[in-house]
Fold this sequence. Notes:
CATH architecture: 3-Layer(aba) Sandwich
Structural class: alpha+beta
Number of helices: 9
Number of domains: 1
Strand content: 5-15%
CATH topology: L-fuculose-1-phosphate Aldolase
Distance between the termini: 10 Å
Strand order of the largest sheet: 3-2-1-4-7-6-5
Shape: globular
Amino acid sequence: MQSHLQVQASDIPSLARLQTVHGVPREVIYDLVLANRILAHYSVLDTFGHISVRHKSTNTNEDCYIQAAYRAPASVELKDIAIFRISDSESADEHDQRKGPLEKHLHAAIFRARPDIQAILHCHAPSLVTFSILPQTSPARLRPVVHVGASTGASVPIYEIREHNGDGTDLLIKTPGLGDDLAKKFEADVRMVLMRGHGATIASVQGVKDLVHKGIYAVLNATIYKDAILLSGAMGGEVPVRTLSKEEVEACGDHVTAVQRSWPAWIEELGEETGLN
């Protein structure tokens, strides 16, 4: 892994500006590239998912975030990372006017609403989409069922875009107003919000490594829960599915120490496809 860290910022002008002009630590940029690659490797991210990490620019003193500028996660490289203002989702670098992802407004809005959130993931994992189309009051609504799945919290609200923008949208968060509406779902104890017929948005107050853990195990938890529901149904519903209690979720915590063990292994699984060389 050390060989990948020998990339010189001077070889990539946009990377050099992130470090020298805006004060983004090299390790933060590298971790964001790796996060994209890891989550794509685990099929949490498809070609349209995206991740952001909060950062205050030392150049303008503005609250900003860094993110890959419209590149499929599995292909993200150091040169793809750009910096955007939290105030309006636009580029914070006058020399780099690349656009962010189409749904960039959800990142800025959530960062504005929750100053404690440090990293955000938006994905379209099929197992999460499955639960997004169930009513919020459904007995089969998404809940944590395994200890590692507890990191996305006991309560997983569903965002219904019809309530905010009528029945004729493409379900995407393409305006600041829709971003603000989604952000309202991220109350103090909420770590993941399902988006009906669309996907999920996950947030971490710990940082991007914790966010990767949350993403991987949110998908695993949903897959296991769906399988258990199907098995219970096949047996006439006589065997109930047992979910974690609120107290168990709190006891499981955020698995911060587990991330320190997992991160090097996830990088190892990428082999030479880290995006850092």
